[in-house]
Amino acid sequence: MMESKANEEMKNGSEWHVPILAMTADVIHATYDECLKRGMDGYVSKPFEEENLYQEVAKFFKSKTISDSSQSASYLATN
Known about the structure:
Layout: H1 2-11, E1 21-24, H2 29-37, E2 42-45, H3 50-58, H4 66-78
Parallel strand pairs: 1-2
């Protein structure tokens, strides 16, 4: 289902963006700024806490409402 939705969006001219998360041992704020300036979408310094990584990665995903999930489950059940 995801593949067909992705193909449909590509046909409709939707732009794709692959998120880039910088991971570096450098904790200098200038490095963070430079990563964003170079087109990266986020930044995590190492060593990192699991929760910090999760929070940064979660920014790249759209959350679904309960009604969206119900519609998807309904679609899958009928197809």
